[in-house]
User: Which sequence fits this backbone?
C-alpha cells in the first residue's frame, strides 16, 4: 500500500510517496524531526540527513565487526 507524506521545508511543500511497511516508519521518524504543520528550516533537513548518515555508518561498522567473527 502506498502512502503520501508531505513536509514544508524552506517555504516549499514536498510530497513523497512511500510503500508500506516503510511509509509508517518514515512518517513516524519525520514527525519527530519536523513540524508538519509549519515551515521547517533547511538546516533541520541537513541535520536529520547527517544524523541518519552517522547511524548508517555506525551500523555498517558494527556489521563488519560481526562478520569478522565468522570463519572465512
Assistant:
Amino acid at each position: 500500500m502506498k502512502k503520501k507524506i508531505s513536509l514544508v521545508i524552506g517555504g516549499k511543500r514536498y510530497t513523497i510517496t512511500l510503500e508500506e511497511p516503510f511509509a509508517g516508519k518514515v512518517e513516524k521518524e519525520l514527525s519527530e524531526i519536523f513540524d508538519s504543520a509549519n515551515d521547517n528550516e533547511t538546516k533541520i533537513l541537513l541535520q536529520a540527513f547527517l544524523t541518519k548518515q552517522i547511524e548508517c555508518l555506525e551500523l555498517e561498522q558494527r556489521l563488519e565487526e560481526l562478520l569478522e567473527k565468522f570463519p572465512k
